[in-house]
Amino acid sequence: MRLALSALLLLGSAHIASAEQFIATFLSPSHPNTLNIQITQFDASGGTIDTERQRIARIGAGQSTWAVNMLPSAARVCVSLSGSQRITSARALMENGSEQALAATSDGRTTCTPGSLSNLDMIVVNFD
User: Fold this and answer.
1) At 100, is the secondary structure helix, strand, or coil?
2) pTM of the predicted model, to two decimals?
């Protein structure tokens, strides 16, 4: 129940991200104390323009959050987990309130936005 309330509270505050920033949120009932993540931004031709590796702490029951500064030339973003965690589902939440399911790679380690990031507000990653 607390996890659901925390997630709703977090989703309700998603508007804090600006056009130059989005929020990456990670949810799991078995969330470790710290989670190693990597966020990679790609330009329109698929070239890597930035890779950010972070070790983020769990906040509350089963969740962690990271604010990501988006580069102006970013056309696509991928979020990866390291360690034994695997992505079970992911979705992108847009500023206009719409959302889009994001596929995970076959090894369950990475999920990527399919294209335009002009109104990306949050990426929510569920993992086990």
Assistant:
1) strand
2) 0.82
Which tokens go with 76? 């696509």
Is 119 strand, coil or helix? Answer: coil
Contact 76, 110 (CB under 8 A): no
What would the DSSP string read from start to end of 26-92? EE-TT--SEEEEEEEEE-TTS-EEEEEEEEEE--SSSEEEEEEEPPTT--EEEEEE-TT--EEEEEE
Please give the backbone phi and psi of residue 75, each rounded to the nearest 5 degrees, phi first: -115, -15
Burial group, residue 81, by CB count within 10 angstroms (0-12, 13-18, 19+): buried
Rounded-to-integer distance, Cα 20 and Cα 18, Å: 5
Q: Is the pLDDT of residue 8 over 60?
A: no
Sheet containing strand 63-69, edge to edge, reads 63-69, 21-27, 120-127, 87-94, 99-102
DSSP annotation of 103 reads P
The answer, yes or no, to whether residue 117 has pLDDT greater than 90, is no
